[in-house]
Amino acid sequence: MVYFIVAFAAAYFGSSAAAGAEPEADRVCFSTAETREKILAHGLSEPFRAMRSAASRSQAEAIGVKLCRWSEELVYEINLLRRDGHVIHVFVNAKTGQVMGPRNEH
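User: That's the sequence. What structure does it adopt?
Assistant: C-alpha cells below.
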C-alpha cells in the first residue's frame, strides 16, 4: 500500500513539474554579475526601485528580484511576501519599469 502511494505521488508530482516547466522554457534568468552588465549595457531601470514600487503597490514585503530574458524581453521577476503569508511573483519590464502582471495572485 505504501509503495502504491509513493509511486502515485512520484508520478503526480513528476508530471505536474514537467507540465509546469513547459510554459517557462523560453525564460532564462541571469546571475548577479550578468545582471549588472545588462543594466549598464541596455540602460535598464534599477532593480531596487522596481522592487520597492512593486512591494508598495501590492502591499507586500519584497524578498527577492532577478533579471530574466523572457520571449526576447528583459524583465525583473520580483518575489513578494504578502501579509497572509503567500509569496507572489510580479513581473516588471526592466526597460520601462512597468508592471507586466503577477504570475500567481491567489
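The two ends are 34 Å apart (CA to CA).
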